[in-house]
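Many introductory courses stop at the sequence. We go one step further.
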Amino acid sequence: MDQKQNLYEKVKFVIGDNFITIEETGRLTDQELCQLTDLLVSDKDIQQEDNLTILVNSARSAEVEKYLESCQFKFHDERIFVRFDLSRMGDEAAVFTMKSLREVSVAHFKDVWQRSMEGSLNAAPYLSMDEQIESVKKELGSSYIDTCNVAYENKKAIGVVMPHIEPGTENEGRMFYFGLVPEARGQGKGSVLYRQGLDMLKKEFGALYSVGATSVNNHPMLSILQRNGCEVTETIKLFKRSNRGGFDDSSHHN
């Protein structure tokens, strides 16, 4: 097995519409992570995608971060990852009405999703709303229809909940996105709605546990995760490289 194949098999590739994200780099040494970075920025297949992201544990050495920056990766955000054992869920009562794309139009869902992102304390997305929908389709396949849900209170849309089984796993639940529209925030609804999303992961998607993440700056979301009993597993830094306009080989250091 050559070095490229060996390093690629040690990490996880998430391929969406116009982006590739490299996850689970924790198994690599600092040297291997720098070698992987070299391979990624010289891989012609990966160059075809507009955006490349590497997730790196926050405890990594400063030298690794400097190396990523020398390869044109820019620090984008720092996120806290959590885990929740869904066997701890009781028989939850549905507080809000959920409607998936089987019942609502894509245009309506995108409108509520867009409003749910307004004023978010997470780092700004680098994809447009249409690109994000295409990414959901590409990553999840036909099941995206059941993942895209609008939450309603008294027939009024208050947010979106996007539960799904992580591709490549049988029972790892995740939320592609979770958020409330601005006028529904600050009223304690977030914790209740997130709990309902966890219940959907268990009952409708068959997940055994849930993995979630949010920016270290998103204190309201961190409170929601904490109130629902989610356990912090690690803190991760995101480094992004935009391939729009092509690669500048002169900026790459070996």
